[in-house]
């Protein structure tokens, strides 16, 4: 089981939120946070972008992001010990 899944929903990111991320954590960008992919590219850990949100906002997933479906989103939540949504 993975550590923490941080689910970002807003484009208004705070530096203390990003500072909490470790290489054992995962990030999932949804809703307007999809616009912020460039702020996460160099951070450690697994990175995901919710496909339906990215398509609605015409956002492409740069490497190392992985596009996930709604079903894969549920699997991500279940595969982590903790989930935090901002």
Give a description of the structure:
InterPro entries: DsrEFH-like (IPR027396), Sulphur_relay_TusB/DsrH (IPR007215). This is tRNA 2-thiouridine synthesizing protein B. With 86 residues, the protein is α/β, with parallel strands linked by helices. Strands 4-3-2-1-5 form a 5-stranded parallel β-sheet. It has a single domain (2-85), classed as DsrEFH-like (Hypothetical Protein Ychn, Chain: A), CATH 3.40.1260. It contains 4 helices and 5 strands; from the N terminus they run E-H-E-H-E-H-E-H-E. The model has no long low-confidence stretch (mean pLDDT 92). Strand 2, helix 2 (37-40) and strand 3 form a beta-alpha-beta unit.
Q: Please give the domain count.
A: 1
Say which CATH homologous superfamily is assigned: DsrEFH-like
Average the pLDDT over all residues and give the rounded result.
92
Q: How many individual β-strands?
A: 5
Organism: Pseudoalteromonas xiamenensis
GO biological process, one term: tRNA wobble position uridine thiolation
Pfam families: DsrH (PF04077)
Protein name: tRNA 2-thiouridine synthesizing protein B
Quick structural summary:
The chain has helices at 15-19, 37-40, 51-56, 70-78, and strands spanning 2-8, 26-29, 46-50, 66-68, 80-85. The protein has 86 residues and is an alpha/beta fold.
């Amino acid at each position: 089981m993975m550590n923490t899944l941080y689910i970002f929903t807003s484009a208004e990111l705070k530096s203390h939120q990003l500072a909490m991320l470790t290489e054992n954590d995962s990030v999932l960008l949804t809703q307007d946070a999809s616009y912020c992919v460039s702020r996460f590219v160099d951070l450690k850990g697994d990175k995901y972008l919710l496909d339906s949100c990215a398509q609605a906002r015409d956002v492409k997933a740069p490497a190392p992001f992985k596009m996930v479906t709604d079903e894969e989103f549920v699997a991500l939540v279940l595969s982590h010990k903790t989930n935090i949504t901002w």
